[in-house]
Each structure stands twice: as C-alpha cells, then as structure tokens.
Amino acid sequence: MQNMVKTLRISDANHKEMLKVQGEIQAKSGEFTSMDDVIAELVKIHRKRK
User: Fold this and answer.
1) Which of 23, 27, 48, 49 has the greatest count of CB atoms below 10 A from its CB?
2) 3-state secondary structure the chain
3) Model-level pTM?
4) Across the 50 residues of the chain, what is the mean pLDDT of every consecutive 10-residue run?
5) What CA–CA distance (Å, rounded) separates 14 from 36?
6) How far apart are CA 14 and CA 16, in angstroms?
7) Which residues touch 10 (CB under 8 Å, ≥6 apart)?
8) How far is CA 39 from CA 1, 20, 42, 49, in A?
C-alpha cells in the first residue's frame, strides 16, 4: 500500500505557529512529532471548543 502525500498551502506566519505547536508537543512527549500529529492535535482542540 502506498501512502498518498497531501499538500497544504499555508502562510509563513501560520507555518511558524505550527512549528511552535510541534515543539510544545515534542517537549511534552519527548518523541518526534510529525506535522500530521500537529494538525490532528489542532483539530482535536478545535472540536473540544465547539
């Protein structure tokens, strides 16, 4: 099975903020965090707020 790569177009400012979130998650877990993990965490937080 081959993984499909999706591309998101985001601003440099948003990318910078996502990198901050990635760093925070990595600091808490002590493990590598992919951008997929970051997006999943942001979606989870967004859903909790609704």
Assistant:
1) 23
2) CCCCCCCCCCCHHHHHHHHHHHHHHHHHHCCCCCHHHHHHHHHHHHHHHC
3) 0.76
4) 80 96 95 93 92
5) 15
6) 5
7) 18
8) 23, 12, 5, 16
- Residue 41 exposed, middle or buried by CB count within 10 Å (0-12, 13-18, 19+): middle
* The token pair that represents 10 in the structure block: 């985001």
Q: How far is CA 45 from CA 2, 7, 39, 40, 49, in A?
A: 29, 22, 10, 9, 7
